[in-house]
Amino acid sequence: MSMMELLSQMRERARAKKQRKGSLPWFCIILSDKCVEPEKPCAECRVYEEHKEEIEKEMIIKIEAVPKLTVEDGVEKVVMGENNQPVWDRERALITTKGGNYRRIVTLTDELAAEVLKGHRYFNAVEKNGKLHITGRVSARF
Prior knowledge:
Strand order of the largest sheet: 7-6-3-8-9
Oligomer: single chain
Radius of gyration: 23 Å
Structural class: alpha+beta
Order of helices and strands: HEEHEEEEEHEE
Number of helices: 3
Shape: elongated
Distance between the termini: 30 Å
Largest sheet: 5 strands, antiparallel
């Protein structure tokens, strides 16, 4: 039984017993505040519906290094370092989902770059308003 189902059952029991007069001051675990629609079951509340849509958009991404590029005579070239190996860009990275349907070159924030330097490559992320937001680190491989 999910937390939402449990809260809905508790609310229905309290209504049946008529423990209180007027609306019940239920606590919403999504908002961490008072329930905004106490007359509806949790699973039908607009807050839950919006939260559910956000969760469905969430994805696991993998961050991969990309070579540093320079432009010479209008042509992009890979910067080569010692032993004729490419120099990896510390500010940009390629992100991809397991299915490969989401592939973008992104600029890393300082916090994300620090996590990547620690060896972390897999993160939970959600796309909002055309921007990718990292929501946490995960232990995954693909």
